[in-house]
Every structure is written in structure tokens, then in C-alpha cells.
Amino acid sequence: MSSEFSIGIQEGVTLISLGECPSGAPFLADVLRRIAETGTDVDMIALAPGSSGGAALSFTVSDNDFACVLGVTGSLQKDNSALKVSVSNGYAKITVGGEPMNGEPGVAAKVFAVAQDVTDLRMVTTALTEISLLVPALDAESTLAALRGAFV
Questions:
Q1: What is the architecture, at CATH level 2, of domain 14-89?
Q2: pLDDT (tens digit, 9 = 90+) per residue, 5-40?
Q3: Residues 101-126: what's their mean pLDDT?
Q4: Which helix (H) or strand (E) holds 14?
């Protein structure tokens, strides 16, 4: 693996999950629009099929912004009583990235192999040249050190 990888950390991250939500882009667009209207940046976003035909939407925001998002989720619940909201803080986002990831098989496997020994992954998002891991804040420094040891 190349030494051109960068590994960074963002502390103070809150995970918000919406279960039993409508599937599809219109709901996702509405949620993100409402959150944007509060001036809050949304970071990691994952949408997956739910157990009863709906969807499960998870995303992260800064700990400093989660109170604004609670107002939005309350409003969403008024519009859709089946919506289940879960909010948890105490996380950090660790990102492994770099151009060497593009076209190099096995990078994700190595990231997860390293992480499995030091943390419990709560969420993963990827891009062509980036893998982001949401980990408990208590594990952040050890996970960061392990990944740096493996990639830098």
C-alpha cells in the first residue's frame, strides 16, 4: 500500500437514524432540505431498505448541531407517526483516503481488518478515494493509531 494515504479524524459526531421511513428520493430530499434550513451540515449518509417495506436512513451531524436536528425529526414524526427516531452521540469519524485507493483492490478489506481489532464500527460510508468509519469516541485514538500504522 502506498504512503500517499491520508488519515484524519473528526471528533464530536452525533448519529441520527430514522427507521420505518418512506423509501425513495422525495423523502430523503425533504429531510435534507429541512436540516439545511437550520444551517446544519449533514455528513455521512446511508439509506438502506427497512424490514417492513420502508427504509432506514442514518446520517451524522456535529454534536453542536444535533439539537437543531431534533426539531426537524420531531416535525417529521408529526408528518409520519410510524417514523422511529434514534439519536446517539459520543462518536468520531475517521477517514482513510487518497488517490492510491482508486483502482487498488483490497484497501477496504485492510481498513476493516485493522479496525476490527480496536473498535466497533457503527457506520461506514465510501467514495472512490475515501472510506469513512464512525467509531465510538473512546476507541477513536486507538483506531486512528492502528490505521496510521497500517497505511502511513
A1: 2-Layer Sandwich (3.30)
A2: 899 999 999 999 999 888 888 989 999 999 999 999
A3: 91
A4: strand 6-21
pLDDT level of residue 3 (50, 70, 90 thresholds): low
Q: Name the grid cell of 118.
A: 480496536
Residue whose C-alpha cell is 487498488? 104
Which of 46, 12, 31 is closest to 132 using CA atoms? 46
CATH assignment of 6-11+90-151? Answer: 3.30.70.260
Are 6-11+90-151 and 14-89 equal in CATH topology? yes
| Cβ-contact 38, 71 below 8 angstroms | yes
More confident residue, 44 or 4: 44
Per-residue pLDDT tens digits for 43-61: 999 988 877 778 899 999 9
Q: Which residues pair with 130 in a beta bridge?
A: 97, 127
CA distance 101 to 96: 9
Domain spans in the chain, listed from the N-terminal domain onward: 6-11+90-151, 14-89
